[in-house]
């Protein structure tokens, strides 16, 4: 009997120690960030946070602006920093980081600095919610995330519950923005699919079109469905539709042969650039030379290793951003990004860079102060989002409806002489 | 007054139930007094899911002695069956608790049936065939769900294996399972309390099965198949019993999982091979055949990567190192000897002897 009591006690103490550890973890992040969290202290109503505040103060003297009121906006970001989709998450992380550094150097928003915290979600819906909760413990007021559609949907359900302002840089599914607190920087999948179909139809690019898409990918199958739906209203005909999945994406000879047999003049590729580069190489090997047309996932195809970029000549794509574009804003962004992170930025980096500036514009429009509650900030920003118009890297004069989808003109690019050039 | 005498088994079981209930009480107190981080609060339901998965897999691996590498596949079946039901009935059954209970039953039964169908041919064989077949099953079920399109409109349900347009839905149609995009908008019915109730239900089923006549028969198959057969135990029947129960419980965990997130997709990340191995790791680290160990290791290993977030980029590295160290600590023969030599119990005994 004694033994039983002892073991029960031991187990109980183990559990409490463990849980106590968890309870602290939230406020520890505050400490790590070396921040002055006066604005959100009320939110994190636990005693630990108050304890760590004094420590945090000591560490943040250099960061505190001389002129500012000492309050900071807290922007969180979520994306996959590990795993197969890490390229996108890291791009989002760096893009937002760059924008926030620039804003802070220029004096912040209304004189208040921005603090930034990025959390990894491994491209898993469940982990994304965990990342969101971690950021909430940290005192996040606005969220740039999640990077991928599925994660954004899962997080949006939570952020709607808390009424926290969420701006997803690259979650392109329509389901991401069903809640009124969520806005998008990128096009929605239907926009891209319909846009591509209309472009091909109205410019008479081709009459017989084949589609090769990834049926296991949300982005790809989403665009394909809208493309096929819109194609019925356009003067061209879809002669072959072939799918592949994430498990067999190295050999496309069957799909290409079918497209060739059907006499397709153009192949629509609503997929990412790694698979597209293989398709281009294999089409060339079988002496099949249709036109290729893609969406924003194709951006980056010129940087694929061991890929003969001559094959990409004449490829057309609808993309909001191209790293080789000649305008001033893109040039300075690309050179700053390369200097800071040693990598050429892709569309995801541009999206999240824009996202931060959009939040800045919305805050300036609405006058939301860092000391407001999370819910108040969200309400103010929601109203402001429909009033602002932002010129960013991924589009000029971007504006939003209350529904959350962005209005901007898709840019059609063509690859000429190894460079993206805008089709007028 | 006669003192209530408990057998060793009953005492052991009571401790297990006690830990779960104690954890529940502590968490409830922390929630009600506000001393809990949102991260931990968000993790409570996933913790319940993984505990149920670990305990149910332990039934197959530890008690039946067969290796199953497709536990996430059964979870996937349960998750989609339950979430489909909830989405379909969202506006018909308004009481969320009732709807969720029916969803749990549907998820558990459908996963149990799938487990039964898979087990029927495979469990008649001797050797590692169950591992091979369940491994394949886990991959196949994911691919099937990724090409499955189901929608509903006023005229009923529509099915397709091509794309959501070929469903031919009417204007008021609603695509419930949208291929790779999965099910979105599942009502968030899962709560920590229901999760704990399900854990206790799982424990009652598994522990009572183990200590019953059937359970002893199952363990005798594990220990010596020929001897068990020679005393007239129907081997296939008992193997199937343990395996289907384990699959059904995994399906139940799946329902809980799907009702905690608003978007459900069958990706390699959540229902793939790695997930099955993850559950197996819970079982192996907790001790094969040790139910309480499974609970504790599932909780620790689920919390660990989240608590390591402070280390940012190094957290998965540290996590894997911790896994290796734990594995060595638990199972390396040298370390087991060392642990015996310096165990607390022995030290206490020694000092007692000296006195």
UniProtKB/TrEMBL annotation, chain A:
It comes from Parablautia muri. Gene3D superfamilies: 3.40.50.2300. Belongs to the leucine-binding protein family. This is ABC transporter substrate-binding protein. Keywords: Amino-acid transport, Signal, Transport. InterPro entries: BCAA_transport, Leu-bd, Leu_Ile_Val-bd, Peripla_BP_I. Residues 28-71 are annotated as: Disordered. One of its GO terms (biological process) is amino acid transport. Residues 42-60 have a biased composition (Acidic residues). Residues 1-20 form the signal peptide. Residues 72-407 form the Leucine-binding protein domain. It comes from the Bacteria. Residues 61-71 have a biased composition (Low complexity).
UniProtKB/TrEMBL annotation, chain B:
Pfam families: BPD_transp_2. The chain crosses the membrane at residues 12-31, 43-65, 72-90, 96-118, 130-151, 190-210, 277-304, 316-333. Keywords: Cell membrane, Membrane, Transmembrane, Transmembrane helix. GO terms for cellular component: plasma membrane. Its main location: membrane. CDD domains: TM_PBP1_LivM_like. One of its GO terms (molecular function) is branched-chain amino acid transmembrane transporter activity. It is found in: Cell membrane. It comes from the Bacteria. PANTHER family: HIGH-AFFINITY BRANCHED-CHAIN AMINO ACID TRANSPORT PROTEIN BRAE (PTHR30482:SF10), HIGH-AFFINITY BRANCHED-CHAIN AMINO ACID TRANSPORT SYSTEM PERMEASE (PTHR30482). This is Branched-chain amino acid ABC transporter permease. It comes from Parablautia muri.
């Amino acid at each position: 009997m004694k033994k039983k009591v002892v073991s029960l006690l031991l187990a109980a103490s183990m559990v409490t120690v463990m849980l106590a550890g968890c309870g602290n973890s939230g406020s520890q992040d505050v400490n790590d960030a070396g921040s002055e969290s006066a604005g959100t202290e009320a939110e994190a109503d636990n005693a630990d946070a108050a304890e760590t505040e004094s420590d945090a103060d000591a560490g943040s003297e250099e960061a505190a602006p001389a002129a500012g009121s000492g309050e900071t906006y807290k922007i969180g970001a979520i994306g996959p920093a590990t795993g197969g989709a890490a390229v996108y998450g890291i791009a989002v992380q760096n893009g937002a980081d760059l924008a926030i550094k620039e804003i802070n150097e220029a004096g912040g928003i209304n004189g208040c600095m921005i603090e930034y915290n990025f959390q990894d979600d491994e491209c898993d819906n469940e982990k994304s919610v965990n990342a969101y909760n971690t950021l909430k413990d940290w005192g996040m007021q606005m969220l740039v995330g999640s990077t991928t559609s599925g994660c954004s949907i899962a997080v949006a359900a939570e952020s709607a519950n808390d009424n926290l302002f969420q701006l997803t840089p690259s979650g392109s599914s329509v389901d991401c923005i069903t809640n009124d607190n969520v806005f998008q920087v990128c096009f929605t999948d239907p926009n891209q699919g319909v846009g591509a179909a209309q472009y091909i139809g109205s410019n008479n690019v081709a009459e017989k079109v084949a589609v090769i898409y990834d049926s296991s990918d949300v982005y790809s199958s989403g665009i394909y469905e809208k493309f096929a739906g819109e194609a019925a209203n356009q003067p061209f005909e879809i002669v072959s539709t072939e799918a592949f999945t994430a498990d067999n994406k190295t050999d496309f000879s069957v799909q290409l042969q079918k497209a060739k047999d059907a006499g397709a003049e153009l192949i629509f590729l609503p997929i990412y650039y790694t698979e597209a580069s293989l398709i281009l190489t294999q089409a060339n090997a079988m002496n099949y030379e249709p036109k290729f047309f893609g969406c924003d996932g194709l951006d980056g195809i010129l940087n694929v290793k061991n890929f003969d970029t001559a094959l990409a000549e004449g490829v057309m794509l609808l993309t909001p951003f191209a790293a080789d574009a000649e305008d001033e804003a893109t040039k300075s962004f690309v050179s700053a990004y390369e200097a800071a992170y040693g990598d050429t930025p892709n569309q995801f980096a541009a999206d999240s860079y824009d996202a931060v500036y959009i939040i800045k514009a919305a805050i300036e429009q609405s006058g939301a102060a860092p000391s407001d509650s999370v819910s108040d900030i969200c309400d103010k920003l929601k109203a402001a989002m429909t009033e602002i118009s932002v010129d960013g890297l991924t589009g000029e004069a971007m504006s939003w409806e209350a529904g959350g989808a962005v209005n901007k003109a898709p840019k059609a690019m063509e690859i000429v002489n190894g460079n993206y050039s805008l089709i007028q | 007054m006669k003192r209530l005498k408990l057998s060793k088994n009953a005492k052991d079981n009571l401790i297990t139930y006690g830990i779960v209930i104690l954890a529940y009480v502590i968490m409830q107190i922390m929630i009600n007094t506000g001393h809990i981080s949102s991260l931990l609060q968000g993790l409570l339901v996933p913790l319940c899911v993984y505990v149920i998965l670990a305990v149910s897999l332990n039934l197959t691996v530890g008690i039946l002695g067969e290796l199953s590498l497709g536990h996430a596949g059964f979870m996937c079946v349960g998750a989609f069956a339950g979430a489909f039901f909830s989405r379909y009935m969202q506006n018909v059954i308004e009481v969320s608790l009732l709807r969720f209970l029916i969803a749990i039953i549907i998820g558990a039964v459908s996963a149990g049936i799938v487990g039964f169908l898979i087990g029927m041919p495979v469990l008649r064989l001797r050797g590692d065939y169950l591992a091979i077949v369940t491994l394949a099953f886990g991959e196949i079920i994911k691919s099937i769900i990724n090409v499955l399109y189901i929608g509903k409109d006023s005229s009923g349900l529509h099915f397709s294996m091509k794309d959501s347009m070929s469903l031919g839905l009417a204007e008021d149609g609603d695509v419930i399972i949208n291929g790779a995009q999965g099910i979105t908008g599942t009502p968030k019915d899962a709560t920590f309390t229901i999760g704990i109730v399900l854990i206790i239900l799982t424990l009652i089923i598994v522990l009572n099965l183990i200590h019953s006549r059937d359970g002893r028969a199952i363990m005798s198959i594990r220990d010596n198949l020929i001897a068990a057969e020679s005393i007239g135990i129907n081997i296939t029947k008992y193997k199937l019993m343990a395996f289907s129960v384990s699959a059904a419980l995994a399906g139940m965990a799946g329902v809980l999982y799907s009702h905690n997130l608003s978007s459900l997709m069958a990706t390699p990340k959540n229902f793939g091979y790695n997930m099955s191995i993850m559950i197996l790791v819970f079982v192996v680290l907790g001790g094969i055949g040790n139910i309480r160990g499974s609970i504790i290791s599932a909780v620790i290993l689920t919390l660990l990567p989240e608590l390591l977030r402070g280390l940012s980029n190094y957290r998965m590295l540290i996590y894997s190192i911790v896994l290796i160290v734990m594995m060595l600590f638990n199972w390396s023969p040298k370390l087991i000897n060392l642990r015996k030599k310096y165990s607390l119990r022995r030290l206490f005994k020694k000092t007692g002897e000296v006195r």
